[in-house]
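Ticket #4471: structure export looks truncated?
Reporter: QA, pipeline team
Priority: medium

Steps to reproduce: submit the single chain below to the structure queue and open the exported record.
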Amino acid sequence: MKPKISLFFNLLLLLQLNAVAQSTTTSKPNIIFILADDLGYADLSFTGGKDVRTPHIDALASKGMFLKNCYANSTVCSPSRAALLTGKYPDLVGVPGVIRQQEKDSWGYLKEDAILLPAVLKKSGYQTAIIGKWHLGFEKPNIPNSKGFDHFKGFLGDMMDDYYTHRRDGVNWMRSNEKEIDPKGHATDLFTAWAMDYVVEKSKSTSPFFLYLAYNAPHFPIQPPVEFLEKVKQREPDATELRAKNIALVEHLDASIGKLLATLEASGQINNTIIVFSSDNGGSLAHGQSNGTLNGGKQDMLEGGIKVPAVVVWKNQIKAGSSTDQLALLMDFFPTLANIAGSNIDHRINGINLTTVLKGAAPIQTDRTVFWMRREGGQHNGLAYYAARKGNIKILQNNPFEPFKGYDLEKDPLEKNPINAKDNELFKELRFSLQEQIRASGKIPWQKPN
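Actual output as written to the record:
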């Protein structure tokens, strides 16, 4: 009799503990933000790719909302990542260009007092982690563990010269928190395995988690695993070697995301996890990536350089298979995710809260004015170039030396026919607004202090 009573009370205790865990986790969803690197807009099946197969990312789009009018905050890596994690224009947090390990070729330094999303989410009880590419600094205070992330396992640097050796100009930037590590294997496989381990570990906790999974794929060098490349070559015999490699690298990324989703499913967390997928800028045309019908590519202020796929999945909260025309930038995810998590933002940001839009409401702030910029060396001589948009009118330069051109994106989405700037009042208004933005950003230092 005693064993039966003991078994009964043990089962009752387990049920009570499970109920407590359920009530804790359902009140605050887990958040996973998956960021691809240099993903071409048309290098996914659901965005129009004809030669690429991405069933797992496509499945995310079918289960959530596709943001059809989403943009990176810059044409390159560091500024977009800074905007995503701070909710501000990158030049207002000291990151107008790419942060590199050689100071003479580095065009940004994250403000030491910048407040990042993980620090905000921690106020609401979130455990926070970044796995993958950081690209916002190499030393304290601008490393992940100093910026609100409880856990970091990944790459501090910009690009890897090799997906298997993980070096940049001979330097190893792979870290487990602040400890240098030298793991073996393809970077995408490593980041995925570490993310899966994290998800399994957190399934045992009653606290919600925020995981920022920042891949370096499909950034060049275009280096897919051999088995993926061979499969693509057999299926797409007319593809060039470069294009086949890019397809294979994207499909390898998609398969990796599928493994993470399967782990979420197996651990029972899939129904209480918000999943966001996007990219930090457009695809690099010189490296076989495709932006479809969009004009331009990485480094351009044309649509192909800054428009990115974006999907948000949240079961029972976001309608499956839905989409929105809302103009959104990566920096908007900062206030959106903070709002969903119940975290207050006590400082000024530039991003807007899109929670109501994700839940099916009409687009908000349709007259919003937004800006893009990038500073770079080399052929740009350390100068910056810009774009701005309000409504359907967009003005841009693709280098610091060319005059601004304007386009009506409703009438000319491919940006082939510049508008007459002299006769367009909105063009003039955007030039003035951009001038004021440049004045504001000019007060922000972007180089490492002596």
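Status: closed, not a bug. The export was complete when the record was re-opened. Leaving a note from the reviewer for reference: Residues 152 and 177 are 5 Å apart (CA to CA).
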